[in-house]
Each structure stands twice: as structure tokens, then as C-alpha cells.
Amino acid sequence: MSAVADEHHGPPPIHYSSRVSPAVLGMFLFIGSEIMLFGSFFTVYFFDRVVNHGVNGHWPPVGFERPWFLAGINTVLLVTSSFSMHWADTSIKRGNRAGLKAGLVLTVCLGLTFLAIQIIEYHRIGFNTGDTSFAATFFGLTGLHGAHVLVGLIILIVMTVRAFRGHFSPEHHHGVEIGGIYWHFVDVMWIVVYVTVYLL
Amino acid sequence: MRNPFRSEESAFRFVWLTIGYFALIVIGSVIDRWVGVAVFLALSAAVGWWFLTRGSRERPERQAPAPSPSDELRILVVANETVGGPELLSQIQERAGDRRARVLVVCPALNSPLRHWASDEDGARAAAQVRLEASVAAMRSTGLEVEGAVGDGDPIQAIEDAVRTFRPDELIISTHPPGRSHWLERGVVGKARERFDIPLTHVVVDLDADR
Questions:
Q1: Structural domains in chain A plus CATH codes
Q2: Is the pTM of this model over 0.90?
Q3: Of A31, A89, A188, which is closest to B8 when you measure between CB atoms?
Q4: Which of A51, B76, B121, B205 has the smallest count of CB within 10 Å of its CB?
């Protein structure tokens, strides 16, 4: 009986001689995997663009219009949502719970508006995924990002519910911090997608 | 390398840097496609240069562990194969005085850069373990209370890890004499003085002369 009690349970002891802390390493790995995921989509997009540009001299192909203005509005919304997210995070660090709640609600509203506009854009864009390789890569890249926004919104909604239940304080706001990092990452990726897919 | 997403604040700053980076590229592209390409290349080169050189410009955050009880002195000894010499032992005894000295010897698992990046550390750790066991045995034979650990291949990182877990009052770095010591060549002692708010003694051990 005592032998069982003395047995070590759980994972092996941590080998502390790692170069980065587990939390930072986790974030590195996550960002690395995301960069690879988006990178593969961008590779397909640029390959298609280089190949097709050489064939007909036009990008996007003739007959396709990129809704850059509507996407520009979405860019403004998402950048603004980064502001409101940052406001929420700094508010809870200063003990301002009202600021946290308002910042999160505003961020959720802006994110939902972004998704709604993207759905409207898809509905009215005039081409579909099977029309050309351009259309496929366009929907692939913007859709991949849209999926990230959706995940970010779920995280934000959970954060908002927790904020209204009083789960966060100036000492304990790790959930807001991590959610904020993810949301800013989604914002950064959108800027890259917007510039490369809609503008250049 | 510092993670640009290490905190919400730094991620927010990164959003702004991204906006600035791409805004300049778009402005360049509107003027002329090749201006856009030139702006992209120039900005990317500038970002790359800044990223590679920022480590040498930034002063590391100083670390100061909590002091140990007054009747106890915790000494961290970081050495590769030079541990256990009479010079080092006399330094430890001098530091301890009448207090109970607890010593942690850390032997960094020195490895080649190629093996390090390939995560091939088994050989280096095994070799460090052998040196460590010999060092700990030599120090224990003098009556000291000694523990040992194999540390990271980077001596500064090995010290940082040990500072976190052992919280030493004193730090002793043992090296070969100048001219034969890679650590001195790489400025390990100076970097450790800069990084750690702990009294540091540099002990030079000439193994050839000791033999």
C-alpha cells in the first residue's frame, strides 16, 4: 500500500533547462502553425497569379472584380476592433470592469459586423469557387480568414460572458490577454490578406 | 528571439507595425509597380536587420532571487570541466564562513550549434552528466553539501534556469585561463554580471597547472 502511495503519478518532472517558457513556446508553435497554414494558401494564390498573369496579362482575370471598397470597410472595422480589444485589456489591468465589458461588447459587435459584411460580399460578388482558379484561391484565403474570425468571435463571446460574471480582475486577466493576442493576430492576417488579395 | 505576440500590448503594437508596413508598400505600388517592389524589399531588409540586431541592443532584465535564511548560504557554481579545483573550493569555503553552505553545481551540456539546432543533445547531456558526477563527488569529499544538475548548453541560460529553481545568494563561474576559455571569449562572465543581481565571483582554474 505504501509502495503505491510513494509511486510518482502524473507527467514526468519538468526539464527546466528549456530556452523558452512553456507559455511562450506554446504561442510560438501556434503562430508558427498559423503562418504555415496561411503561407500554404498564399503560395497557391501567388503561384496562380504568376502563372495566369503570364498567360493573359491581367490580374484578376478579365471579368472578375475584387470588392476592394467593401473589404476596405471591413479592414477599418477590424482595425477598430483591435483598438476596442486593447481598450478592454488595459481597462481590466487598471481595475475598470465597465471599460472591460464595453470594450469586449464593442469588439464582438465589430467582429460580427465584419462577418456579416463578408457574407454579403460573398453573396453579391458575382462568381463562385468553381469558376476559375482565381475564384478558388480568393474564396480559400478570405474564407480561411473568415473561419479565424469566427473562432475569434467565439473566444470573445466566452470572454464577454466571463467578464459580465466578474471572472476577471487586475490580478487575474490571463483569459483577456490570450484572447486579445489571438484577435490581434487575426487582424494582422486580415491586413496581409486585404493588401495581397484585394489591392495589389 | 522575442515573440511579437508575447502580450496583448505587444500584439496591438504589431498590428500597427503591420499596417504601416503594408500601407507603404501599397503607396509605392500605386506610384509604380516597381516602386512598390523596391519599397517591399527595402522595408523587409530593414525589418530583417532590426530583428537580427535588436538582441544586442536590448539590455536584459536583471534578475535578483529572494535571499535565503541568514544561517544558510546558497552558492551556485557554474563550470564545465573546471569544477573541483582547489581555487574553487577555497572560494566556496571563504564565501560560506561559519554559515551552512548549500552548493549547486551546474554543468552546461555544451554542444555544437548544428547538433543544438537538430535537437541532438543526448551526447552532450551524457558527457556533462559524467563531468558533473565527478565534480560533485570531488566537492562532497571535502564535506560540502553539494547537489548537481546538467544545465542548458548556453551557460547564461543554464544560470538563469538555476537561479529560478535554486535562488542562490552567490554565483561562482569557473573558467579556464584567458586564451583557453571559450566562455571568456564569448563574454559569459560579463553577460552574467549584467543579467543577474547576485554577487558573482569569477574563478580561473588552470587544470594543467593543478596537475
A1: 16-199 (1.20.120.80)
A2: no
A3: A89
A4: A51
